[in-house]
Design goal:
InterPro entries: C2_dom, C2_domain_sf, PH-like_dom_sf, PH_domain, Ras_GTPase, RASA3_PH, RasGAP_CS, RasGAP_dom. This is Ras GTPase-activating protein 3. Keywords: Acetylation, GTPase activation, Metal-binding, Phosphoprotein, Repeat, Zinc, Zinc-finger. The strands form 7 sheets. This protein has a 7-stranded antiparallel sheet with strand order 22-21-20-19-25-24-23. Strands 1, 2, 5, 8 and 18 form a 5-stranded antiparallel sheet that branches. The longest helix has 32 residues. The protein is globular. It has 18 helices and 29 strands. It is of the alpha+beta class. Strand 21 and strand 22 form a beta hairpin.
């Protein structure tokens, strides 16, 4: 979900690897150990939670998390909790990274010290104030100065123990005085509207003096005065009200202006009494990749996009823009991700991969090493399989992976690692049954393999067979090196990375999956001496179970099916595909004439056929909505039920299902996937009501009839393909950013082309890293790339200059205290000074 900014869309995303914690403080009991988990929070809103690691002070999580960020935020925070069976889980410590500091840690493993969690460390939100200093002449002719402080509203206050009933205190404080006043308490909201005015007498009455608004004796005292606004949560607990944040403003800044209105970020109290050293709580290893894409309208990207999309037709392909991107990027994966998504979006992925794969095969000398390196071809096919094949994995592997994770059958076959009471033969039999079942479901799944993957495999098979005509097996190994080695085996080994499980498996299950993955990988390799592939003798012994021709025949039949052109009509597959499921809270739809429309927690399940909910996972559905009956899916304004993260599923006859997701990221995911799967419905609505129908009228437009057409246009549609939600302009922007980042390498590559054109001797060492088959054609493409990147760079610079002129510091979007905006102002000032 993008934030719109005057012709520009801003996308935020974050990819996090939560590694491990170490040296956590011991539990104050005889056991000393803790059962810990880690949460990921945008400010204080939890968006992800790891599994619980039991009985450890150095828990290893090994979990990956990615999300699109649908709102503004100030901190990305990580909390370590200790599970308590009888009470609320206790917080051990946290890591909070300010948004403007995320680039410091970009894509590198970093150990962060855990910090203490208290009211001051949890401050968030902003307050809107208006201050007015006025001069009052009394009936007796004397003068005094009064300060009017208007507390208008707050936004984004922290929620404490599940509730927020905020109020504000306003204090005028000086060296010899302190006067405090208080607003009313606003119940059950963290975005309170106060709009209350408080008056303070600033100076003592004196005779009127035209030279100064203040008597000389009062000036110093006024300069030392400050107005302080404290936000509190009204609590019924015996410990008193909880501190939410404060703001301190010296009165001397009002000497230049009698009236001042602005938004401010709330700050922690400046008490500085930290009781423990930072390292007393241990540390947490994280890898964070935060990305912010500023995307223009599509026409801005036409020159660069056109050069990229012609890559498959360029001869030789090494002179194409896409191949050049792979040459200049530090890692091939960097280039592969946006390239694959761009080519998939425009339906050019198969010809592009066919072209670069054919070129790689021509450079390969040994058929046994075909597609074994981390080349651009390999990385692009990996990324394509991960995108297009995700649902294929779900229907093929997920049921048996779930069983392995839940049943915990002992499958250890290394005699050295056997636990007490385990039988080696029984374990081998358990493992053999699992391998057999997974091998069978894979080799029987050819008809379900996505079309785009099959077309790519067909191209690989043909290129390999043509290059190595004397090797009859190469047509199989060229395909198996991807489908088994890079797709099924990794998915079995790390199911959480392929969305087959929510978390990294426990150690015993992980060991079972490792043994299965090794065996499946070897079965799919079709190598001549398979037992020799294992360095462990126990694996070679176990593999004897599968040294039968029927396994090799099954693999070849499967590979033949998925790499044959025109193999089957993919529309004949009628098995529903599970797209998303999970608990949410829904409001009764009012199907019964009488009864309360209350809120209940339900298990929701979405397939490409229907959207259902039931009491618990596995129960019979209480309600089923066919996909063709979903006419719109839109957000619901918070004012409707005073609840965050709500959305609505609109059905025929104006029936609406109101749903609350657990957090903003999950709400966005549900809205996106429901919108995508229902995008092609013929009766989709064009307008909707952004608020609910309550007490006889729509809250948004005040219309009284419940069947009144919507008052707001529906949000823009998304691609109808349920597997591939891709924004072509965003991917082109990412490719532009990469070219811009590696501009020195592009220029070096230009030099290499010039050197090769005029000198046919030994290649200079600094140019040897580039693949340049045709210097003239490559130079021509490089020139187009550099021109396109330069044009976009100018557009970005102009946009920043325009935004800099229009943006007001102290506005709702950029409150006073916004460090990222202060940094931005400093950068723009430096740029302006440099240009002058």
């Amino acid at each position: 979900m993008a934030v719109e900014e005057e012709g520009l869309r801003v996308f935020q995303s974050v990819r996090i690897k939560i590694g491990e914690a170490k040296n956590l403080p011991t539990y104050p009991g005889p056991n000393k150990m803790r059962d810990c988990y880690c949460t990921v929070n945008l400010d204080q809103e939890e968006v992800f939670r790891t599994k619980i690691v039991e009985k450890s002070l150095c828990p290893f999580y090994g979990e990956d998390f990615y999300c699109e960020i649908p709102r503004t935020f100030r901190h990305l925070s990580f909390y370590i909790f200790d599970r308590d069976v009888f009470r609320r889980d206790s917080i051990i410590g946290k890591v909070a990274i300010q948004k403007e500091d995320l680039q410091k840690y970009h894509n590198r493993d970093t150990w962060f010290q855990l910090q203490h969690v208290d009211a001051d460390s949890e401050v968030q939100g902003k307050v809107h104030l208006e201050l007015r200093l006025s001069e009052v002449i009394t009936d007796t002719g004397v003068v005094c100065h009064k300060l009017a402080t208007r507390v208008l509203e707050c936004q984004g206050l922290p929620i404490v123990n599940g509730q927020c009933d905020p109020y504000a205190t306003v204090t005028l404080a000086g060296p010899s005085r302190s006067e405090a006043k208080k607003t009313k308490v606003k119940k059950k909201t963290n975005n309170p509207h106060f709009d209350e005015v408080f008056y303070f007498e600033v100076t003592r009455p004196s005779s009127y003096n035209k030279k100064s608004h203040f008597d000389i004796e009062d000036v110093d005292e006024v300069d030392k005065m400050e107005i302080r606004v404290d936000l509190w949560n009204a609590s019924n607990l015996k410990f008193g009200d909880e501190f939410l944040g404060e703001l301190r403003l010296p009165l001397k800044f009002l000497r230049q202006s009698s009236s001042y209105e602005a938004w401010y970020f709330l700050q922690p109290r400046d008490n500085g009494n930290k009781s423990l050293k930072p390292d007393d709580l241990g540390s947490l290893r994280l890898n964070v990749v935060y990305t912010e894409d500023h995307v223009f309208s599509s026409d801005y990207y036409s020159p660069l996009r056109d050069v990229l999309l012609k890559s498959a037709d360029v001869e030789p392909v090494s002179a194409s823009a896409a191949h050049i991107l792979g040459e200049v990027c530090r890692e091939k994966q960097e280039a592969a991700i946006p390239l694959v998504r761009l080519f998939l979006h425009y339906g050019r992925i198969v010809p592009f991969i066919s072209a670069i794969a054919s070129a790689e095969v021509k450079r390969t000398q040994d058929p046994n090493t075909i597609f074994r390196g981390n080349s651009l071809t390999s990385k692009c096919i990996d990324e394509t399989m991960k995108l297009a094949g995700m649902h294929y994995l779900q229907v093929t592997l997920k049921p048996i992976i779930d069983e392995i994770c839940q049943v915990h059958k002992p499958c250890e076959i290394d005699p050295v690692k056997l636990k007490d009471g385990e039988n080696l033969e029984n374990n081998r039999e358990n493992l053999r049954q699992y391998v057999d079942r997974i091998f069978t479901v894979i080799t029987k799944s050819g008809v379900s393999c996505p079309t785009v993957m099959c077309d790519i495999f067909f191209s690989l098979r043909e290129s390999a067979a043509k290059r190595f005509q004397g090797d009859l097996d190469v047509r199989y190994t060229a395909v198996s090196s991807f489908i088994f080695l890079r797709f099924f085996a990794p998915a079995i080994l790390s199911p959480n990375l392929f969305q087959l499980t929510p978390h990294h498996p426990d150690p015993q299950t992980s060991r079972t999956l490792t043994l299965i993955s090794k065996t499946i990988q070897t079965l799919g390799s079709l190598s001549k001496s398979k037992s020799a592939n294992f360095k462990e003798s126990y694996m070679a012994t176990f593999y004897d179970y599968f040294n039968e021709q029927k396994y090799a025949d099954a693999v070849k039949n499967f590979l033949d099916l998925i790499s044959s052109s025109g193999r089957r009509d993919h529309k004949s597959i009628e098995q529903p595909i599970l797209l998303k499921e999970g608990f949410m809270i829904k409001r009764a739809q009012g199907r019964k004439r009488f009864g309360m429309k209350n809120f209940k927690k339900r298990w929701f399940r979405l397939t490409n056929h229907e959207f259902t909910y039931q009491k618990s996972k596995g129960d019979h559905p209480l309600c089923s909505i066919p996909i063709e009956n979903i006419l719109a899916v839109e957000r619901l304004e918070e004012e409707s039920f005073k609840m965050k993260n709500m959305f609505q599923v609109i059905q025929p006859e104006r029936r609406v299902l109101y749903i609350q997701a657990n957090n903003c990221v999950e709400a966005k995911d549900w809205i996106d996937i429901l919108t995508k799967v229902s995008q092609c419905n013929k009766k989709r609505l064009t307008v909707y009501h952004p608020s609910a129908y309550l007490n006889g009228h729509w809250l948004c437009c005040k219309a009284t009839a419940d069947n009144t057409p919507g008052c707001t246009p529906c949000t823009g549609g998304l691609p109808a393909n349920i597997q591939l939600d891709i924004d072509g302009d965003r991917e082109t922007e990412r490719i532009y950013s990469l070219f811009n980042l590696y501009m020195p390498k592009l220029e070096k590559m230009q030099e290499a082309c010039g050197s090769k054109s005029v000198y046919d001797g030994p290649e200079e060492e600094e140019y040897s890293t580039f693949i340049i088959d045709d210097p003239k054609e490559t130079y021509k493409t490089l020139k187009l790339i550099i021109e396109g990147v330069g044009t976009l760079e100018q557009e970005h610079a102009q946009y920043k200059r325009d935004k800099f002129k229009k943006t007001k510091y102290g506005s709702q979007e950029h409150p006073i205290g916004d460090k990222s905006f202060q940094t931005y102002i400093r950068q723009q000032s430096e740029i302006s000074a440099h240009s002058i």
